Hints:
Elements: H1 3-18, E1 27-30, H2 34-43, E2 52-55, H3 58-66, E3 80-85, E4 89-90, E5 96-97, H4 104-113, E6 114-122, E7 135-139, H5 144-153, E8 157-160, E9 171-176, H6 183-191, E10 196-199, E11 201-202, E12 209-214, E13 217-221
Parallel strand pairs: 1-2, 1-3, 3-6, 6-12
Antiparallel strand pairs: 4-5, 5-11, 7-9, 7-10, 8-9, 12-13
Helix pairs in contact: 1-2
Residues 31-35, 85-88, 98-104, 107 line the site of ribulose-5-phosphate.
Amino acid sequence: xxxxxxxxxxxxxxxxxxxxxxxxxxxxxxxxxxxxxxxxxxxxxxxxxxxxxxxxxxxxxxxxxxxxxxxxxxxxxxxxxxxxxxxxxxxxxxxxxxxxxxxxxxxxxxxxxxxxxxxxxxxxxxxxxxxxxxxxxxxxxxxxxxxxxxxxxxxxxxxxxxxxxxxxxxxxxxxxxxxxxxxxxxxxxxxxxxxxxxxxxxxxxxxxxxxxxxxxxxxxxxx
Length: 223
Ligand code: 5RP
């Protein structure tokens, strides 16, 4: 199976998982990236089964709207039963690195609101120790150099993601060469640096369920 077919398989598995639990008042949290796009396309076949969505990026909102799926502002909705999103890396405890698509802050906000965060990923994303994928950090532009120096003190090699502004108008530093053995500790340390908006470690609030696409089929993992 190709990586694209694995992404489509986990997207379909997520739809199959949530569909029986949705009703015409349900709002679904929707993530960002190529795997989330597969989920959006699969969800679009069931438009009548739920009320609408909250999106974690302008790109996902545009794709949802193109399918005719309502997209609400997070502040206007109450409960979110599910948030479905991809990841750049996951460990067995469902601690994640996210933000390859620069949407990490809104992703983290929607994940915080949702009762159940379902991560969908192909098998290449499962690692024993997080950190091979450079850790994205969203930073207020004027704090870029300060934050970069503090990240070096934490043992990383930050690189400015050229030409990228987040949906919130901020920049991204990608931090290379971190061996993230204590994700919750590092998440807290990086968030404490003045000028950091958020970082792409999802450890304090990990995923609740991982649907992992493998050539043998979709595996379901829980922390
Ligand atoms: C975007 C993200 C994505 O979930 C992550 O980059 C995975 O993307 P893809 O499904 O394209 O591999 O965090 O900010």
